[in-house]
Structures are given as structure tokens and as C-alpha cells.
Amino acid sequence: MADIIQLLPDHVANQIAAGEVVQRPASVVKELLENAIDAKATSITLVIKDAGKTLVQVTDNGIGMSVTDARLSFERHATSKIKSAEDLFNLHTKGFRGEALASIAAIAHVELKTKTEDSEIGTHLAIEGSKVISQDPAVVPKGTTISVKNLFYNIPARRNFLKSNPVETRHIIDEFHRVALAHPNVAFQMLHNGSDVFNLPASNSRQRIVNIFGSKTNEKLVPVSEETEILKIEGFVLKPEFGKKSRGEQFFFVNDRFIKSPYLHHAVSAAFEGLMKNDVHPGYFLFLDVDPHSIDINIHPTKTEIKFDDEHSIYAMLRATVKHSLGQFNIAPVLDFERDKGFDTPYEYSKKSPTAPSIEVDRDFNPFKEKTKQGNINFPFKREQSASWESLYVGLKDETEAVSVSNLEDIEFESEEVTGSLFENTETESGQLTFQLQNKYIVSPLKNGMMIIHQNLAHQRILYEELLKNITVKEAVSQQLLFPLQLHFSKPDLEIIEKVREQLEHTGFIFSEIKDETIEISGIPVLILESHVVNLLSQLVRDIKEEVPDSGFSQNDMLAKSMAASMAIKTGVSLNREEREHLINQLFACKEPSVSPRNKLVFTTMDVSDLDKKFM
Ligand code: ADP
Ligand code: MG
Predict the structure, then answer these.
(1) Which of 151, 312, 335, 397 is deepest in the core (most CB within 10 A)?
(2) Residue 507 covered by a domain
(3) Domain identity same for 15 and 76
(4) pLDDT tens, position by position, 151-186
(5) 404 within some domain
(6) Are 332 and 343 contacting, i.e. CB atoms less than 8 angstroms apart?
(7) Closest listed ligand to the CA of 113
(8) Which ligand gives the minimal distance to the CA of 37?
(9) The pTM is what?
(10) CA diameter of the chain
(11) Ligand 1 centroid vs 162 CA: distance in angstroms?
(12) What residue numbers bound the domain in which 168 lies?
């Protein structure tokens, strides 16, 4: 056979790489803002047109680039920020992959104007679809302006995939917030279609938060501060009474980089335990500083996840620090740091605070939950915080108010952030109106249409969050087996199980013996049936082999994913009314109901207007 392998031309490779880096205009905003920060700018201006679809432009007064660097900056893997692999573990910059500009230039019309401090004259460069169209000397101030026009002009499919302008603008503002919050000492400006959206002078952290989220925020903030050998924590949490039904202002920054971390989020939530109702989430702006050697930020292309070497200590410290701050500022009574779940009883707010205590009886009490406690096989675990339909969708309105975007009033939210009451009335809660399709989907009517839920994926999400909680907080219960189970595994497989033994025990497994090629199990999680144990463990071993998690949280995460997938009710299982309703309630009590642990869509909605179109 003739040789058939060819190297992809650069512009094609760049276009493919661009898919990872640039999903939407907001991705461009993030990369350009971060580059400006890395260039030590003290003032940064973001200009967008048509939600960034027509133009994203960032101007900074940073160090600028020489003529050669200007051209090189658009090459793939061209970076001034790292020189060797070791540098990856000592990062002090946002960027390091040298991919952003190359990717952006592959899928847009890009113009660059830049000048360094000591050169007389700057340079002006135009690029289209990875090709340099022109490079000329130009009279420009010190710093850099990059304009990205007509994003995805050469990939119509991607362009069509973009959401409405208000949604894309929302994403841009989110990215802008993240960078602006992390760098209060840098002045930021944002303009959309010619009008001012934000004008943030250089200031301190508190002032920056207030400038972004409005003057009312000031009195809601409780300062948090702690420094130990491995970790420095600074920032603010919102007083418990300002918690929200949907997740609103929740920001973690690690070494000035915005990150998402369900694990750290859990630590903060745990500190608030007993101070807020179950279905309310705390708000926070927390800045963590750790030794760059102790984290690995290299695991996600868009870099909002990181791995910590010692995440258990960080978890404990974060929780204790936030608890302490809440105590210190009279938000909570003096706290006992040793106790894991110390706040079960309602407490009195200090005399100063006239607001009502936030602890209330469970108004969402659901008689079906009792049933499940008696051992319903399909839904064998209990969750205290089952939210009613109403409570799910009210309260989201304050979200929109909190953001000061007066001239962007038409901003709309994506499905997970829908405003207003989606459901017609509480009748839905009775479950009468739901039905099952093909023993696979649960259909539930909504105010303007219907919601279709994938039963297996929904249950995976529910179990995943529960398991992850059990693994990290270690509070699961086991069911003792009358006759211990003897299972046989190969030596290497047993070693794998041995490695995750501790975590498995946190979910409720009791291993009385692991030796040679046999494992003896005398207790299993209440969530599963004895007959499922073999499958679950074998699948787990397979998943671990495939994913090779290193340590800590990512391992817990994958453990929970694997177990959830094994345990979830399968397609083909018929569910009665109560079970359907229970599943829906549990799903919407989850933190991320809309995606499965492996990032698949859990439910979709269909409007009557969508249906109407079919009958035209
Ligand atoms: P990375 O940020 O990962 O290094 P980029 O593709 O974002 O990769 O940028 C490539 C290089 O271009 C950077 O390493 C930097 O040297 C230079 N650069 C990009 N933006 C700017 C800017 N605003 N000011 C100065 N230099 C910049
Ligand atoms: Mg960069």
C-alpha cells in the first residue's frame, strides 16, 4: 500500500487547535485580557461589538512587543512565558501554552498594533485565517491593541452555533468579571456597541467588588483572612442572609487565576452549614495563594480547573477560616473547630441584626422521601435538600439585579439560569403530570412547553454529587452483610482497589480482608444492592485503568463518576409516579442538574412555540 499519512498544513492544524481554545467570543476576551495582564498593563480597555461576534478589541498599556515578536506571537507554541517543562511548575503568568493568538488568528480577522517602551515606532500587523496580510511600521502609544473581527468567519458551522447576543454578552461579562476581580490594582474599562458598561478604576479588592456588583454589596461582605505555611486566604464571603437560591457570586481565585472547584465550594458551604437553608448557596470572593510548585494548572485547556498537591489540608483550612470569619463578625456563634457538623440547631442572630433567622422548618417536606428511606431499590439514598419546583426558580431575579449592566437590559440567561417561574404551578410537584417515554425519558410539563429528562443521566448526576460528598466528607452509612462477599480479582486489579480503598470506605464499603487475589467485603453502601457490587468494582477498576487519575480530588471525582454510572437506574426500567417525581426533585436539588457527571445533557426543554412551528 502506498504511504497515506501527511502532515496537516499549519493553518489547518491551527484551526483544529482553535476549537479547543476558542468556543465563543468570551474565550477571545479571556485570552486577550490575560495577555494584557501578563504584559503588566495597569490599564486595560475592552471594546466589543455585537456581543463580540463582530469585534473584540483589547487595548493595554503593557510592555508591548518588538517587530519580530509581534509576528512570532501568532505562531503556534510561541510564548515568552515558559522555556522548559520545569517552568510549568513555577508559573506566574496566566498564559503559557503559546496557543491563544495562533488559534484566534486561524478563525478571525486579526489586527495587532504594538510598541515597546524603548522603540521609537511601533508595528501594525494584519492577519486573516493564519496568513499575514500586512506588516507596517505605525505610530502608536506604548502597549498593545489587538482587534479580533468577524470571529469564525471561515467556519460558518461554529458561527451559527453561537447563542443570541444577550447570552454571548453574558459570557463576556462573566470573563471580564473574573479577570477584573483578580486584578483590582489594574484599571478596566468595557464598552459594548459604543456605550460604557464598566469603568473600574484601580483600587483594592473590596472596592472592586463593590464597583462591579453595586454599592449595596459593601455591607454584605464579611472579610476572610488567614495565612499558614501552605496557604494564604484573603477575600470575602457574603453574609448568610444574602445567600441565593441559584449559584450567584461564587469566585475562587488561586494565584490570581479564576478557578472552578466543586471541592473547595463544598468546603465553603460546609462552613455555612446551619446558617442558611439547605437550598440556598453562599456567595464568596476568595483569593487563595499557594506555592506554584504545589499546583498543577495544566489539566484543562481552558484552565479553570487545577490540581492541588495537598487538597485535604486546603479544604480543612478553608472551611475553618470561613467559619472563623463568620464567627468573628458576629454572623455565627463562637464556633467549635473540631466538630464536623456543628450547627444543627438554629442560633440567635446577634442583637444588632434585625433580620429574621434563616433557619426554617422544611417547607419542602415531601412524603415520598419517607418511602425511599424504607428501602426503595431504585432510589435508595436520601437527600435532605429536596427543593420544590417553586423554590428552584424563584429568587433568580435578584441575580440579574446584582450585575450593574444598565445599558444591557436585554441580557438573557442560558437555560441553567432561567429567570422567573418556569413551572406553571406547584401541581407539577405532585408528579401527576409527569410520564415516562420508552422507559427512558421522563416528560414533565412546563409553563410554556415541556421538559424531557433522561432518567439514567439524571440519576447519575444525583448519585455523583451524593457520592462525591460522601467521599470527601466521609459521612456515608454502610449496610452490614449477613454473609461477607468473597470476590476474586487479579493481583494488579486488587492493587488498584487497594489504592482507592480509603475512598471506597468513605462511601460505605467495609473490606474485612484484601489479600492474594481475594477481597472480602462485610459491608456495602446503602445506596447499592449486593448483587451489583461485583459489576461496580470491576467497572471501577476498568475506569481507573483508563483514566489514570493521579491523586486527590481528581481521583475522588472519577471514582464518584464511575460508581454513579454503575449504580444509576438504567434505561428500560419503568418508574412509577412517585419515583419519577422523586427523581426530578432530587435532580433539581443538585448543584449542576443540567449535565451528567460525564458532561452529557441531562434534560432538554421544548417550547410550545417550537411545537407550533411543526404545525405550520
Ligand atoms: P501565551 O499567553 O500562552 O504565551 P499567546 O498566544 O496568548 O500565548 O501569546 C503569545 C505571546 O505573545 C505571549 O507569550 C507574549 O509574549 C506575546 N503577547 C501576547 N499578547 C501580548 C500583549 N498584550 N502584550 C505584550 N505581549 C503580548
Ligand atoms: Mg495568552
Answers:
(1) 151
(2) yes
(3) yes
(4) 999 988 888 889 899 999 999 999 999 999 999 999
(5) no
(6) yes
(7) 1
(8) 1
(9) 0.58
(10) 85
(11) 26
(12) 10-200
